[in-house]
């Protein structure tokens, strides 16, 4: 069996990771600008000020995608370009940029898939409490409407939030990503407010003319360190509720999973009447980002969390040190179907990929065989899931370009295309040609 008719083969990026041009055309500051410019936050003091200069080089990047043969491109809008202060009238010059990009993609035969929020919150909203403040959900819906009003006639697919669990965990609980707050489990209201923002944005997007609307979550199969140990199994269940269910159950079933084992604050006071039905507004697809499984053991007594992460050492790892386990990807896809059965909308794999320390050889090539093997094995796992009858309609490799990898700066290289940050020269890697051949002649 080949891939389903109309399958989307794409690549993905996010605004702060590729655009640069942080002061141009009226863009306001985001939490990531402030975070990256705070000494000690990002490795070697790297920032997204220039990144891949995609804001200026987008015609070249669209040409690279056309040559690659993708039929969809997932990118995010920078909220602070659209609404520099996070509320009120749209900044037309910010929207003009995305307007041009969308038109160029369509002219190249590539469907634009837009993420509204890939972590770059307008700083003025953060100053007012960020996602700890319920009002941010309403601001998000207003932004969603303005974006759709301008672009929905041409954008085929809308993703409200990217990986809200990472915002809650890394951004507000542990402080390793913007905005760098260390609230630990007191960060849980940011989960509810993001979910509310998602639900309100679904309605706002549809009101603005958007056709296909969904959200993208990060999933990581939870492995108990010792499957015979009840305490390790409980740790894995608590992690699973936090990582894999907290942002999916409410959307697909209208209820939170049991979070009592997490030990955080009671969410009830934050959940107003009707919130859960807003959050459970029907969506057209679920975006799935997968990179690696996580192994958990019982935490030390008195630890702040109900689980403790343990390194997975029996598999090869990527440049990030992430274990390469394509079987875990397959089991995740099967778990989603088993868990939500008829309530599961069509899936799109909105991110999957790996970093390696790729270098341009003297002959000008970039031999990233390890990336080819990674993608090949993960696409094969997805293919098995499709053969199982799981409705998967697209796959987006992370990423088109090497880019700003958050707290790791420019060190990890995730691209199918190598970027020399001194010259901004793009060099397609071997994986680029491999992916092109795979998607232009789909396997039988
Ligand atoms: C995901 C993010 C994406 C990228 C990859 C490596 O969690 O959504 O922006 O950084 O990890």
From TrEMBL:
InterPro entries: GH (IPR017853), GH_1_N_CS (IPR033132), Glyco_hydro_1 (IPR001360), Glyco_hydro_1_beta-glucosidase (IPR017736)
UniProt keyword annotations, A-Z: Carbohydrate metabolism, Cellulose degradation, Glycosidase, Hydrolase, Polysaccharide degradation
Pfam families documented for this protein: Glyco_hydro_1
GO molecular function: beta-galactosidase activity
Enzymatic class: hydrolase
Family matches, as NCBIfam families: BGL
Name by which UniProt lists this protein: Beta-glucosidase
